[in-house]
Amino acid sequence: MNKTLLLIEDEVALANSLATEFKFENFDVLIAKDGQDGLKTFEKYTNIIDIIILDWMLPKMSGMNLLREIRKISQVPIIMLTARNYISDKVMALSNGADDYITKPFELEELLIRIKVALRHTQKSVSDQLISINNLKINLEKTRVCIDDKIIALTKRECDLLVYLMTNKDRTCSRNDLLDAVWGVDFTGQPNIVDVYIRNLRHKIPRNLIHTIRNQGYMISNNYIE
């Protein structure tokens, strides 16, 4: 499955040229031409973005401010690509969460290598943040759910419910367990809301993974025989 790269660059010719090269390297590319558009694009596609190439001097919101905003909600790899070549600028960017810093003008080959290195480091760091059963996988850092590497659209509540069940694989989870973990101990609605969400999940993931344990609750398992 192709990686998705978000390129935030206001120089149109450079952005288009880089996008062509990235696509040739089998990346799916999203382009934003100013800081505000970059933030909106990231928030919209946060579940599929694997790496960001970020200019510093952007209209509407600087790359540095955008870096800080993204770091409040995500640890996605970010490489700064900028004409600012002072050591103090590099120190500031790295101190605020950038994974790498490349100054313009630059060599394309070096940029591509640094992208691959950043992705390799990320794959190592998130290995403990992946849970799976059969062909169903969840990236906990991105809250991304995939079946056979195809992304499945879930609501946040559905995803939270699925994560809880999968982290308690082969264990029966009562409705009260699920309500407390997913809806919170202060939830005052009807307990059958759990059944509604379980039914929704069964329409989106393999139905034989979530088992109903009569008079007890639900279990995710590939070994349970009803």
Automatic annotation (TrEMBL):
Modification 4-aspartylphosphate, positions: 55
Keywords assigned: DNA-binding, Phosphoprotein, Transcription, Transcription regulation, Two-component regulatory system
Boundaries of every OmpR/PhoB-type domain copy: 128-222
Pfam families from the UniProt entry: Response_reg (PF00072), Trans_reg_C (PF00486)
Matching SMART domains: REC, Trans_reg_C
Swiss-Prot/TrEMBL GO biological process terms: regulation of DNA-templated transcription
CDD domains: REC_OmpR, trans_reg_C
Gene Ontology CC entries for this record: cytosol; protein-DNA complex
DNA-binding region in chain numbering: 128-222
Domain Response regulatory span(s) in chain numbering: 4-119
SUPFAM superfamilies registered for this protein in UniProt: CheY-like
Molecular function terms from GO: phosphorelay response regulator activity; transcription cis-regulatory region binding
InterPro entries given in the database record: CheY-like_superfamily, OmpR/PhoB-type_DNA-bd, Sig_transdc_resp-reg_receiver, WalR-like, WH-like_DNA-bd_sf
Name of protein: Response regulator transcription factor
